[in-house]
Amino acid sequence: MVEITIRKRPREDAAVTQRKFFKKTARGKVIKVLRERYLRDDVSCGIQRCGLCTSDVEATLPPLGTQDHKTLLFGHYVVPDTNVFLAQMDLMESPLFTTPIILLQTVMEEVRHRSLPLFNRLKALVNADDKRVWVFYNEYRSETAVVREEGESPNDRNDRGIRKATAWYNTHISLARPPVRNQSKPPVTTAVLLTDDVANRQRAEAEGIKAISVRRYIEGLKESNQLLDLLSAMGEDIEPTRAAAPRHALYPEYLPSATVLAGIKASQLHQGHFNANQYNYLEGSVNVPAFEKPVLLLGRENMNRAINGDIVAVEVFPESEWKAPGDEVVDQETMLKNDDAEDSEEDERDDDAAAKAEERRIVQAQNAKRLAAEKQPTGRIVGMVKRNWRSYVCHIDRTSLQSSNPTSLSQQTVFATPVSRLLPRIRLRTRQAPTLIGQKILVTIDRWDNTSRYPEGHFVRALGKVESKEAEQESLLLEFDVPFRPFGKAILDCLPKEGDKWVVPPKSDDNPEWKDRTDLRDLLICSIDPPGCQDIDDALHARPLPNGNIEAGVHIADVSRFVLADTPMDSEAASRGTTVYLVDKRIDMLPELLGTNLCSLRPHVERLAFSVIWELSPEAEIVGVRFMKSVIASKEAFTYEAAQLRKDDPNMNDDLTKSIRLLNSLAIKLKEGRMKAGALNLASPEVKIHLDSAESSDPVDVEQKQLLETNSLVEEFMLLANISVARKIQETFPQTAVLRRHMPPPPVNFDKLKDVLLKRKGLSVDVSSSANLAASLDKCIDPSEPAFNTLVRIMATRCMLSAEYFCSGSVGRDTFGHYGLASPIYTHFTSPIRRYADVLAHRQLAAAISYSPLHPSLHSKSYVERVLDTVNRRHRMAQMASRASVEFYVGLALKARGKAGVVTEDAFVIRTFRNGINVFVSKLGIEGLVMFKREIQFDAENYCVTVPNPDGSGRTSTISVFDKVKVQIEVEKDPNTQRGKVKMTLLEPVNSSTL
Amino acid sequence: MSSRVEILNDGGYRSDGRRQYELRDITIDLSPRGTADGSAMITHGLTEVMVDVFGPREAKLRGQTLHDRALLTVEVGIVPFSTGERRKRNRGDKRILELAATIKQTFEPIVQTNLYPRSEISIFVSVLQQDGGLLPASINATTLALLTAGIPMTDYVTAITCGVHSTAPLLDLTTLEENDLPHLTVASLPRTFKVTLVAMETRLHVERVSECMKIAGEAGKVLHQEMKRAVEARTKRLVQAMDMAPRIGGVGGGVDRDVDMDEDNQT
């Protein structure tokens, strides 16, 4: 049984054993706090074989200290003061610094008070095996405890305590080893005070304590050369800690909203969405209509608390102050790892001064000798038009935790690091921080005062363990704002009452279902889709006509028959906008019964369809087109591969195969015509994830998607159908037709790509029109590197704008064009099961052929605009979500593939930075950063970096954009946030693991 | 910043320099006050509680008297300056009523109320300073006050709080520790090792409870020794005083019983 005792505290010296202080609460109330302190004589000194102390923990200090010093010729320990740890942590952590350290409790507590991340590093240092550190609890030892005196600053009190403890060590050592008579006096071991505070050193010397500055001490050590490098510059003449100053504003105030609105009206201010830079957290930009290039915002103060997506008001500086965007990767986690979550009163402290100075340096570095052409309008945010805050998926930063004790109930202020690199860290108060470590959590931002460096938020809920599939999936859906709740009862009530028993009723003239419907059940219709596709929304047929022309038909699921306007199901579909495809899950826009059964054009059953039937000349020119509601019975559901095989098999000569061949020959001609018109052949990195089985959904492998001839077959006919429908509905409803357009990209978007191509490869692209671009892209070939062309196409795609839905009456007739497809008009008609815009197009087409009257809402321009706005947003989000899902699975696959999760792949350099390169691994479809810790030469004009060879030979290798390199890819866990990160290291031409 | 205090640091010290199983300084003052029949003042560290006991006497409210035993009434008063933040608590305050009810429940089975039917024993608890462990200090002080009032009890009641930091139990928590740790208050009978009260307001892991109870029970024994020493010293003084004035009158009755009980303990 443990020994339970009562500690006695002498009441007489309440001055020493009690501490009284006043504290101001957050509300401004002053509270008097009284604490007691029990002083003891059993605090161990930690010197091995000390005759006076006993300790239940093994002592770590060698009895004679260290003698490896050039000027201190006696055995000694060092007693560093607080500032040494605050400023020189890297030095203290170095394995070359071997002197035994006496770490005083006073120092430890001061470090804890000043910076928790540093405190956590200090704790790791104490527990490190190769270090000899003893924590001496001087505040609890009766001889060394000090009391703050009248008029003494807390800092002076601590310094005095440190000196007193150092002096105590010296007397303690001499007492523990009394000189034995008749023997020569053994060399006395001493505790040496290590401090950069001159006043403290002087006082110590006056009290007879040996004191030395860090630099002087290091100079006397054996490995002084290497250690001196680690010496931080700010350690030179440190000022004593400033007393807590009143909080002052870190950011400029926003202008009042009336002023902002007036300013925007007068075009003095500009309004736009704030976009954070994912490579550099100190940089952001705002696209405004007044300038061709986005307005650049440099540094925290100019970004003024904007968060990605906010609508802000920007003031643009005079042109002489314009700057070029940065060329350096700046990661906020590494930059600000020592920042403290609870910085409230103590902003601008010494310890983060270094980080701030570094930030300033980075911001100013941009200024230096950059090409004038690269300069962009530069400005600052002066007002907030609308915050676009939502909930963010975050991880708790482990180092910002005060106590990781799982039973702790105390409220802590911690940092939550958002998953997205575009967001700043969020300061969070929570009582359950220890249990939230290693979990994905949802955090909402509450406010961002101008006195606070970080936004403040609150915890919403935990999503589950990091890297568990459920948590990752849910966090992905939340992060991209995908509505994923199951369909409610009101919505399910809109489904046909027969459920999955619903069938097309037998043909009769008086049945309303057959009214105005064409019977196409005899046609040889088939569908071609990716493997495993359940929501089949399109089918095709083709047959030769007696007049030598060809009849081709595209049959689209008749979703608008089931989804009627102004029903709960319709409004839900409108708000969902699109079906979202994740690697292992599909979030439907419509209830499953419709999507995968009643609407899905499954083979061998009768289904309602909306058909577009052309009469095409053998040269694939449209002779005539008819639109009709129909009933079809698909004869077969092919996969792309199966259709391809059937087409290529010379032994198959049945009618269905013939019709596929016919379709194919037409598709080839259609494509030719389209290419001639200037359609772009764009590329995006698409990969396919192989799943082990449906249940476990463990990814086994990743491969690039293969495109077959039949893919293009389906694509061509869908495009043709979309274009035909677009023409028809635009004719009938010129004010409210639902169309889709792709704006031509502003030529400046291509400036960078053009420049790189010219300088690195001597190639040029012509961006004056889509036809010219397509032609010049075709010429971008590197004979030795077949993948080069794809790479250029991917990069060109990134320079373009994204396509969008619009209401025909809302924009000028001349902006209807689809740039990528080189079509003057376009809409989406062919996938009504998974896209809401198609449902609207169906309704409009049905009205256009006088099948049914148009619902009044579709006559209203504002309604169509509003719906399409949501659909556009959802569409964008859905794309990002599925990309993120693929990325997550690629990460998992990487882990599963190589041993210990390390994979080596070829990659292309696509961007160079001052301190790293961005590479693209085409085989996996992922992009990654290779960072160099050591100084490298960076040539911004020629887009290359020169990297020294790590073998020390002095040789260097130059890596430039478009170079093929070998990278090692591994998934490593960030120790603080527990999130998996893809880490890339260069293997060829140089190994960058040591750089 | 108070939140920046480590509850139990790597050296095994708590924020006030104690180790895990060390109780705070306890001082006991049993000198009589005013018209009270028994009174005691106890400090656990910076928590200071004064208890006055009146009775057994005729019940103030006739209607409440019980025909077979004495009525135990507890009233708690907390002075506004007992905490750092001045806060006036009314007598009707729910926390205070709960505290009073807890003390009452703790002592009802221990005090031999059946010896005094139709009478009342009033206990007045005044909290002068608070720094964690309010309930245990009140219970310990009440035990001592009842003893000095000469009211027969079956045993001492000793109480202590036990908290758990991660897996390490801590005894006798300060306010700082109480705010941070799950804890329970255990009032035990040190001689019979029975438990008369367990109070828990925070969630404590079920695997830790039995260990806490055991350690709190042991701590109760240590407290018992301390309290007994104080009671013995007081009795000794009384006996000396009586020796000096050899008039043994009716007043001595209560004192005798007090001594009896004490001897009983020593055997």
From TrEMBL, chain A:
InterPro entries xref list: Dis3_CSD2, NA-bd_OB-fold, PIN-like_dom_sf, PIN_dom, RNase_II/R, RNase_II/R_CS, RNR_Ribonuclease, Rrp44_CSD1
Composition-biased stretches (Acidic residues): 340-351
UniProt entry tagged with the keyword Translocase: no
GO molecular function: 3'-5'-RNA exonuclease activity; endonuclease activity; enzyme binding; RNA binding
Compartment(s) of residence: Cytoplasm; Nucleus
One example of a Gene Ontology biological process annotation: rRNA catabolic process
UniProt region (Disordered), positions on chain: 324-357
Transmembrane recorded as keyword: no
Stated family: Belongs to the RNR ribonuclease family.
Keywords: Cytoplasm, Exonuclease, Exosome, Hydrolase, Nuclease, Nucleus, RNA-binding, rRNA processing
SUPFAM superfamilies listed in its UniProt record: Nucleic acid-binding proteins (SSF50249), PIN domain-like (SSF88723)
Gene Ontology cellular-component annotations: cytoplasmic exosome (RNase complex); nuclear exosome (RNase complex)
Protein's name according to its UniProt entry: Ribosomal RNA-processing protein 44
Needed co-factor(s): Mg(2+)
Residues annotated as domain PIN: 76-202
Residue ranges annotated for the RNB domain, each copy included: 517-851
Domain of life: Eukaryota
UniProtKB/TrEMBL annotation, chain B:
Molecular functions (GO terms): RNA binding
CDD domains per record: RNase_PH_RRP41
Coiled-coil positions: none
Keywords associated with the record: Cytoplasm, Exosome, Ribonucleoprotein, Ribosomal protein
Source organism, top-level taxon: Eukaryota
Main location: cytoplasm
Pfam families per the UniProt record, alphabetical: RNase_PH, RNase_PH_C
Domain Exoribonuclease phosphorolytic intervals: 22-152, 155-218
InterPro entries: ExoRNase_PH_dom1, ExoRNase_PH_dom2, ExoRNase_PH_dom2_sf, PNPase/RNase_PH_dom_sf, Ribosomal_Su5_D2-typ_SF, RNase_PH
Keyword Transport among record annotations: no
Location(s) in or outside the cell: Cytoplasm; Nucleus, Nucleolus
One cellular component term from this protein's GO annotations in UniProt: ribosome
Segments passing through the bilayer: none
Similarity-based family: Belongs to the RNase PH family.
Quaternary data: Component of the RNA exosome complex. Specifically part of the catalytically inactive RNA exosome core complex (Exo-9) which may associate with the catalytic subunits RRP6 and DIS3 in cytoplasmic- and nuclear-specific RNA exosome complex forms. Exo-9 is formed by a hexameric base ring of RNase PH domain-containing subunits and a cap ring consisting of CSL4, RRP4 and RRP40.
PANTHER family on file: EXOSOME COMPLEX COMPONENT, EXOSOME COMPLEX COMPONENT RRP41
Name used for this protein in its record: Ribosomal RNA-processing protein 41
Source organism: Cristinia sonorae
Lineage of producing organism: Eukaryota, Fungi, Dikarya, Basidiomycota, Agaricomycotina
